Amino acid sequence: MKDVTQLTEGWSLRHGEESLEATVPGCVHTDLLTAGVIPDPFLGRNETDVAWVGRRAWTYVRDLGHDSAHERTDLVFDGLDTAAYITLGGRPVGRTRNMHRRYRFDVTGRTGRLEIRFASAYDEAAAVRAVTGERPNVYPEPSQYIRKMACNFGWDWGPTLVTAGIWRPVRLEHWSTARIAHVRPLVTVAEGTGRVEVRLAIERTAQGRGRTLRAEARVAGARAEAELNGDEAVLRLEVPDARLWWPRGYGEQPLYDLRLTLSDEEGGPLDTWHRRIGFRTVELDRSADEHGTGFTLVVNGVRIFARGVNWIPDDAFPSRVTPERYRTRLTRAAEANVDLVRVWGGGIYEDDAFYDACDELGLMVWQDFLFACAAYPEEQPLRGEIEAEARDNVVRLMPHPSLVLWNGNNENLWGFRDWEWEAPLAGDSWGEGYYLGLLPRIVAELDPTRPYTAGSPWSGSWDHHPNDPAHGTHHSWEVWNRQDYAEYRASVPRFVAEFGWQAPPALATLRRALPGERLAPDSPGMLHHQKAEDGNGKLDRGVARHFPLPEDDFDRWHYLTQLVQARAVAAGIEHWRSHWPVCAGTVVWQLNDCWPVTSWAAIDGDGRLKPLYHELRRVYADRLLTLQPGAGGLVLAAVNQSAEPWRTTVTLRRTGADGTTVGEAALDVTADPRAVARIAVPEGLVPDERSAKEFLVADAWEPARPAGAGSGGGAGSGGGLRALHFPVPDKDFAYPRPRFDVTLEPVPGPGDRVDIVVSARTLVRDLLLQPDRLGPAAACDSGPQTLLPGERTRIRVHGCGTLTADAARAALFCVEPA
């Protein structure tokens, strides 16, 4: 049987004459940080002080001895970052130039000093550029010339921290006769029967050649065997009455253990392989219709509106992301009613722990191949690396039932058309051959059970603009960059794969990241932790369209920018969900951050929830009530993504700013399963479009939610869903001076939980508790809520220690009159 020795201990990091203890897996930055050689690059403006690290060569060293009776010993790397020259006992072992691949080297009988010499990523990129020639890039960094996490070179939300190191596990594998080289399980289901076609490839030692071997596969009580006289075999298994794996909200996520054993002629085991699989079908409906060209995921025959988020690497140093951290972050996504996570193409193919968690949580995974915002040469040495990388990762990830889509790139097809690349390229290769040729061929060959799309955005062919909202996937960035968020309602794309709005992180996150700084929107640390072009200008303009821009009041600016972020994303999702099935999904940019920064994230770099997170939970719920203005008048839309009909009574109230009811009606509404009911608001209930003193409230009352669950849509006392329509911007509306009472009610049971009970005396618009103002570890269960006079809400808080009503009131913000 194969023996494995993990090589986690005894490493040192050397540069010149200096040497320090190294942690493997890890990277140069984390080792230097542990040793106190560099300051924390996430704090203040330290990022610029450590830029030298990425421009130097580094060497990892350890003594390697092994005593094995096996015929063969392999040195196996799950990840080397990036351009490395490996020697053992002073003799060459191999070279690498790809962070995204696994490597295996035969070191049978060899011992001595193991050295892994990492070149500077900048030097490697320069060497490749000298061969291939120049290519355009959105950023002034050479990410397109090296197969490395592109956002290491900086992004409009990320620091420039160019890493090097042994970033994934390394081990020795000792084996005899043969080993399992790779396994490709093609999992399908038809008429209730699950089928697994296990495609097995093995590697033999010299002594193992010519010997007859046996392979056995087992899953859910089914068993299949095959004899191997060569190096490949196919084993087929059938599972009657297989339970289907569903995305969350559509059913359960049963997983089955698939085990494969390779044995010699006498039945002695040589090697084993194990993964969990799930039975489900997935299709991508790209049919043409009267609206253009669709883009709808179909799982187990059910058409799905994808409630998605974009995922970036969760740390600028990804070796620090543990399985527990993956699960925490992804559980947060599931709790926000997300059902799809797009792994973005400027990052990494994540660790198996990421996909394991998605399998269990019912989160569909859209996986980009790793190309983003640049023109990529198609010549050697890159082409061979890219093919090997794609083959490696398709085989590694294909067992996961959560993986539903392969995507060729992020924004490169769009970039070629719109970003002035074509002229400077002058006919040079730029990646089209990867996205429309190489990658779809690899997916069709290795993983034909899943769909592939050439890019995001992509209209399906060059017959249409790559980012045409009527065809395929669309990235909606004009609104954030140049317009008010109300402009999301101007179109109905077929699938919105990226859109978003910025906001700063939580106050406690800023205070940790910018120690000693007097916070202001334009203070030095705040500007350093704002990477977007004119980011603060766009934030201010977004606020100013709705509110007077605060002067010399950072707390107010902070609240309003976070509120506008939540409102903007909600406005887009509510509009697009109300147009299902024409629009078949939204993927918010972005779920997470890789460091403390002002960004589009819903969860900040310290893991704190921004108000946007709570709004995602509301607007991505199975049932959503929304009021949508349009050319034909105001519409009430009841969005029902559940499997049951939604029958409810919606109370519409035309309401004065002082809380009086001007007009009222009750509508019986029925939304079919997985459908939207759209009803014109009666003319007498629609506030005048110029009215500064009236607004419309729609409430769908349902059984009361548990105390502390938060009202989500701000429905105040009781339970239910609420939608609001204000005809004029906040700065023009005649808000009363908000008045409300605050009391505290301890929550029985373990922990320091307490309900903050807010009772409104007036209209209180977008009441928001910022829990970290009560203590760095404090968190709450709800985001912005709007209360009418006489309503009250409970906000459950934990982690805040001893709390007073005055302290709670100081952490509460709401809209105030201009």
The largest beta-sheet arranges its strands as 3-2-4-9-6-7
Strand content: 25-35%
Tell me, briefly, the overall form: globular
Class inferred from helices and paired strands: alpha+beta
Topology, number of strands: 44
Total helical segments: 16
Overall pLDDT metric = 96
Query: Nearest-angstrom radius of gyration?
Result: 28 Å
Instruction: Show unreliable segments.
Output: 704-718
Major sheet: 6 strands, antiparallel
Fraction of residues in H or I helices: 10-25%
Q: What's the end-to-end separation, in Å?
A: 75 Å
Tags for this entry?
single chain; 818 residues; alpha+beta; 6-stranded parallel sheet; 16 helices; 19% helix; 32% strand; globular
Describe the structure.
By secondary structure, the protein is α+β, with helices and mostly antiparallel strands. Helix content is 19%, strand content 32%. It has 16 helices and 44 strands. The strands form twelve sheets. Strands 3-2-4-9-6-7 form a six-stranded antiparallel β-sheet, covered by helices on one side. Strands 27-26-25-24-23-30 form a six-stranded parallel β-sheet. β28 (473-476), α10 and β29 (495-499) form a beta-alpha-beta unit. α4 (323-335) packs parallel to α5 (352-361) and α14 packs parallel to α15 (611-619).
